[in-house]
């Protein structure tokens, strides 16, 4: 190797080092601006729905392969809804129309078959007939005592189009689709000069032990409570009231050593369902001491106070929001409020140093 060559090599090395330094400085700058938000709460409370809205609002929505995934999941959702409705009808002693008894047996048999175009068509026909049966409609009304999602009727009413070969789910369908989260999912986007990293976790009991790995460097945690679930039992354990589980979990999380003084936003979610339910079902089914009657304002205030009292920290800020995670405009408004509080706090902090 000649001397001129080694000079050339040295120059190339210097150039490479400079490039690495520049990238490193850029990375550090990006890291400074990264804001990590952890979304916590019990299963089915609406965490992933909230995060899906981030994808709609601040990213490019859903790509073809995601749409295909949701299309298949929605079809699976529908099959499970009918299965659960048949189970409820049976438990309640409701009898199907004579002609539908055979259809229900046929439906259960078809579910075991390999999914082909022909089988899918047959399943669709069974679903339509069964969903038109008054026994299943009555079962749907009694869903709070069982494990049937509130969105079940939305999808069941759309069965014909959902099972068509050219069906492509729209945003409303994707937001209504239920896929319980397993593991950790995250979404990153740029907004107002900051990189926002939103971390979504699974909320069912078996998933919660994975949360701890996400506790570092959190700027704020969002706690999602499905406020409409005060008369429902846990999917994992039907002897436990969902609202009480959520309150207990919030208390445990908010007072956890890692989060001691961390700011928090509580989303009292599924307000659309709550505002209808509270007129029918008294909050006393969950909290015996509540005496505000079937009144939306009294009931929301009561639940909010229960949560606020559970946090021991005097230093933390708790922002409360009433949300409907399936409503894009509502989530936009709420997230903008959260992000402006977080940005403001960061600016105050950096001004101090
Ligand atoms: N009506 C109504 N449905 C909602 C709302 N928020 C979420 N949902 C529905 O509730 C179901 C559960 O929502 P997810 O976002 O999957 O719940 P999650 O908290 O991520 O649940 P895990 O992943 O199991 O922890 C979905 O079918 C959503 O469409 C809401 O505000 N109103
Ligand atoms: Mg989820």
Automatic annotation (TrEMBL):
<dbReference type="InterPro" id="IPR001019">
    <property type="entry name" value="Gprotein_alpha_su"/>
</dbReference>
<protein>
    <submittedName>
        <fullName>Guanine nucleotide-binding protein g(O) subunit alpha</fullName>
    </submittedName>
</protein>
<keyword id="KW-0547">Nucleotide-binding</keyword>
<feature type="compositionally biased region" description="Basic residues">
    <location>
        <begin position="8"/>
        <end position="19"/>
    </location>
</feature>
<keyword id="KW-0342">GTP-binding</keyword>
<dbReference type="Pfam" id="PF00503">
    <property type="entry name" value="G-alpha"/>
</dbReference>
<keyword id="KW-0479">Metal-binding</keyword>
<keyword id="KW-0807">Transducer</keyword>
<feature type="region of interest" description="Disordered">
    <location>
        <begin position="1"/>
        <end position="23"/>
    </location>
</feature>
<dbReference type="InterPro" id="IPR027417">
    <property type="entry name" value="P-loop_NTPase"/>
</dbReference>
<dbReference type="InterPro" id="IPR011025">
    <property type="entry name" value="GproteinA_insert"/>
</dbReference>
